[in-house]
Structures are given as structure tokens and as C-alpha cells.
């Protein structure tokens, strides 16, 4: 059986060297000739976009696009939707610029999705560069779980920590493939036709919670899965919430999410 036609997109904002490392990682571990990688620079103020546009990756499968303004994470990824339709992509990968691949993970996940037609979205198990496992599969957000997430580090014992462990699914066996209700935007495989039919990311989110929103949209069309048999490295640069602007942006995104999807618990 022929392999699904694959595409991927990295939305960059500054940090040229890290973006280049991610691009080379994707190209090295994805040998398919009809694969396409789109690198979208979100008007990086440090000149990253111009340097990427001038970079010779030695591979015609790479397309670099520099946006005139920073449109946010979701709209940056949405900008390639017409390209995906034109190339006939079947499985598309949403990748952070701090992702490093190994062992043909994209082809493996695409083949798994081909063999599981009910699956419309999936994520591998991600690890820190030092080998620690990341807690990225999560339950559907509720206001209580997000509050506990913010307070668990300050109060490492008690009700907040217990609720945070539940939100991060630490009370579940994540060593086997299983359905989930919140797929991280750091590394997600989506069935391209479903991603397009869902309209991609909601463009009203500039940053934060847009991946939870996309997961809920994709769940209307099928199943979302954690696939721990596939692995990748994720540096995971978490911005401190001491930044008032970022904190306000997060609150606005949360408000939009709960207005759309309600504050109730998930189904899994």
C-alpha cells in the first residue's frame, strides 16, 4: 500500500539557529520525495525570516514564507492551507521550531493514521533534551484544572497538585496508544482534509489554548490519539507568566475557549 502523502509546517518567530536545526531534523528523518515542509516566519524582529529565506537547505522540498506581520501561531499555520490542497497532502504535521525528530517518526505516524481511519489527529510522546518525558497529553481543560495548573508549582502538595496530576493524565497508563481529548500544538499530526474542513486553527486566538480549541474541532470529525510508540525531542521554552502581557493574553484565550466549548469535563 502506498504511503500517505505528507506535509509539515513550522511557524518561526526568532531564533534562526533553532529553526534551522528543526528543519534539518525533519528533512533528514523524512526521506519521502513528495514530502513538503513549509517554514513560515511570523515577521521575526531579529531578522530570522530574511536569513531563512536566504538559507540553502539543499532540498527542494522546503518552502520558506515570510509574513509581513506577526499574525500569531494559529494564523501562521493556517497560511499554508491552500498549499496543502494544491499538493494533495493527506497527513499534515504541525511542528514547533524547537522539535527534533528521530527514526522516521513522520512516516510512521502517517502510516498509523492510514491504518486507523477513525483517527483524525495524533501526537507522539515528547521528551526533553535530557530524556525526561513531557506531560503533554492532557484532559479537556476546565477552569478548575487550569487554575490548579497555575497553582500546583507554588503548592506542590494538596488539592492543587492532585488536580494538576489529573489534568496531565499522570493517573493514567500512557505507555500504550490511547485516545486523548487535548492534543498539543507542539507536535500534532492531522488528517489534512479534516484539518481544512475544520477551518484550521481558530484565527481569533493569537497565542495560548489554540491547540485545545483545534482538538475540540477535530473531535467532531473523529478520534484524537496519543501514540507513545513514536518519539521526538521538544525543547519546550515556556514563557514565564510574570509577563503581564502574556498573562493577559492567556486569560483572553481561556475566556474565548470556555465561551465556545463550555466549562464541563471531557468524555474520556
Question: Describe it for me?
Answer:
This protein is of the alpha/beta class and 268 residues long. Helix content is 36%, strand content 20%. The protein contains 10 helices and 9 strands. It is globular and about 55 Å long.
Secondary structure elements and pairings:
Elements: E1 6-12, H1 16-28, E2 36-41, H2 48-54, E3 62-66, H3 73-78, H4 81-87, E4 91-95, E5 99-100, H5 105-115, E6 119-127, H6 143-151, H7 159-167, E7 178-179, E8 187-191, H8 192-197, H9 210-219, E9 223-234, H10 244-261
Parallel strand pairs: 1-2, 1-4, 2-3, 6-9
Antiparallel strand pairs: 4-8, 5-9, 6-8, 7-9
Helix pairs in contact: 6-7
Short summary:
With 268 residues, the chain is an alpha/beta fold. It is built from 10 helices and 9 strands. Strands 1, 2, 3, 4, 5, 6, 7, 8 and 9 form a 9-stranded mixed β-sheet that branches.
Gyration radius, in Å: 18 Å
Percentage beta strand: 15-25%
Point out poorly predicted stretches.
none
The topology string of helices and strands comes to EHEHEHHEEHEHHEEHHEH
Global structural class: alpha/beta
Q: How far from one another are the termini?
A: 33 Å
Looking at the chains present, what oligomeric state does this protein adopt?
single chain
- What is the percent of helical residues? 25-40%
C-alpha geometry: globular
Number of strands: 9
Biggest sheet features = 9 strands, mixed
**How many distinct helices?**
10
Mean pLDDT: 92
